[in-house]
Amino acid sequence: MSPHLTPIDRSGNRAASPAHGAENPYARLTRLIATDRAVIMDGATGTELIRVAGERPELEEHLWGLTAILESPAEVRAVHRRYVDVGCDVICTDTWGLATALRDGQARLWETSEPIHWMDVARRGVHLAREAAVESGRADEVAVAFSINGDVDTPDGRETVRLLARAFEHDPPDLIVVETLTLVRTSTYATVEALLDTGLPVWLSFRRCLHGVCGVYGEHWGGPEGDAFGRAARRFEEMGIGALAINCLPPDHVTGMLAWLRDFTDLPLGVYPNLGYLSAAGWRHEAGVSAAEYADLALRWREEGAQIVGGCCGVGPPQIAAARTALADTKPGHVRPDALPDEGVNPISLDSRRPAVERWTDARGRRMYPLDFPDITLESGVFVPTQGSLTVWKYLYEEAVGAHQRCLDIGCGSGLLTVQLARNGAAHVHAIDISTQAVKNTLTNAFRNGVADRVSAAAQDLYPWVPEERYDVIVASLYQTPVDPFEPAVSHRPLDYWGRGLIDHLLRMLPDALADDGTAYVMQLSIIGERRTTQLLERLGYQARVVDFGLFGFTELFNDARDQVARVEELSDAYHLKLGATDVMAAYLLEITRKEGKRR
């Protein structure tokens, strides 16, 4: 006999072993597990009641089952009876929400003509389940489990448990099952100890998958915990818990969990997932999982080592009946699944194997996860690429701009655009910046990305600079912030009332710097206006179209210039967006080419 499944008698005292007296229901569970036979739990009484009697929208979710114990006892008993009749070895009382109600301060739970204490509800819940077993003629076989959820693990939990022990003095359940636990707190061990002190066997059931804490919808609430939960399972075993289960999570989240737990504990292990959940439109049942399909799932869990199998929300008698039949002549296995869930975090690992998955690619068939971003280091004093620069980079990457061409990066900064052009296959990229430190940083990043043989760089002030050749591609993401000329200068940036000084000078240089059939990609912010750019390009014989744009909020630099930005916007067609208290500007990526017939 497993030391974790000690039977009790109906008075709550430890019973004699089967060899010295009649076998009670809990002793029968012990024998089933000891002889490698599956223990079958019921499905969800609460959601099955909804199928039978309809929803009660005026009640909180956790109060529906509790209310039914008082207002519809015959229906509760009938649902229990359905599970008993299909061969369940364990049926759970319809009291799951009791701990939540107590946590919310609802000691009486609801208003009725006669005062009803929660302890009476607990006793009646056990009585209805027991009656169902008696009516079926299986009273000596079916174990009644008092169900309570993880909200019993509160500072007042020990007092609740103490009162429960009093409530069960004359008609105790065969065991207590604490369901849908999530976190393992320091208080959890104290609560479990208090439950064990009642003298009743205690089973624990957690919403847990290989990624950690799991929700009813399959959402993952926390990061990976390594072996922390496994160590907790071992401690629960040492405390004397009777069994450990995984419950009320989607079936596909069960995969691999039992095999992982078996590395930590010899406790009997169980599985009873959900096939439905509470939605905004009421209870939603996953009708797509038939009884036969549920039986196939049960066999899979059995192969992984499940000794206890049942169902939670949305699992009805047909699914349980099919699972019982499928498991009748099986033994728990030791299979470690090859295919494990992969959510992009480091799950509790059974091994290093992962299933082959289809990878994200772009229109060119290039892998997009993780993003193939250049290896960029930023040295002290070098500007971090702005969102405008990142918009330019994205376009260069997506369109493979610069392949087999001679390119120029004006205002190279960290060298992000220079490096991407070279990675795209440029014949050569020359980078210039007024900052010597930025030039050094660009050359460093070219080396880090293996393109140093096709990159040159020089410190140049754009205003006096004269290009030595004309380039096929020019890229530029330049400083363009309106500055009040009466404010003291704090950098090498020139005082620039309109914020257009650098970009206008660049446009005037295009005839000398850009090949006749070349293309310039220039990032321009909305806060310096469209009209002046269009007029200047027209006069020079160029045309522009927007090939991409980005939106980003004002940084500290632009917030400091907010008053000057407002002046420029009042005097020109410059603009930005106002979203509540947040100022947002547009960064346009202009593709500039010569107009037909305007060759130099």
Structure description:
This protein folds into two domains: 27-327, Alpha-Beta Barrel (TIM Barrel), CATH 3.20.20; 387-594, Rossmann fold. The strands form four sheets. The chain has an eight-stranded parallel β-sheet. Strands 13, 14, 15, 16, 17, 18, 19 and 20 form an eight-stranded mixed β-sheet that branches. It contains 19 helices and 20 strands. It has helices at residues 25-34, 45-53, 64-71, 73-85, 98-103, 118-136, 157-167, 186-196, 228-239, 257-262, 291-303, 317-327, 387-399, 416-423, 436-448, 501-513, 531-540, 556-560, 562-571; strands spanning 39-40, 90-92, 143-149, 175-181, 202-206, 208-209, 212-213, 243-247, 269-272, 276-279, 282-285, 308-309, 406-410, 428-433, 455-459, 471-476, 514-525, 542-553, 577-579, 582-594. It has 600 residues and is an alpha/beta fold. α7 packs parallel to α8 (186-196) and α16 packs parallel to α17. Residues 1-21 and 339-354 have low confidence and may be disordered.
Strand content: 15-25%
Text of the CATH class of the largest domain:
Alpha Beta
With helices defined by DSSP (H or I, 4 residues minimum), what is the helix count?
A: 19
What is the global morphology?
elongated
Helix content: 25-40%
Mean pLDDT: 87
The number of domains is 2
CATH superfamily of the largest domain: Homocysteine-binding-like domain
Distance between the termini: 96 Å
Strand order within the widest beta sheet: 1-12-9-8-5-4-3-2
| Class by SSE composition | alpha/beta
CATH fold-level label of the largest domain: TIM Barrel
Q: What is the radius of gyration? A: 35 Å
Strand count: 20
Would you identify the CATH architecture of the largest domain?
Alpha-Beta Barrel
Question: The biggest beta sheet, please?
Answer: 8 strands, parallel
Low-confidence runs: 1-21, 339-354
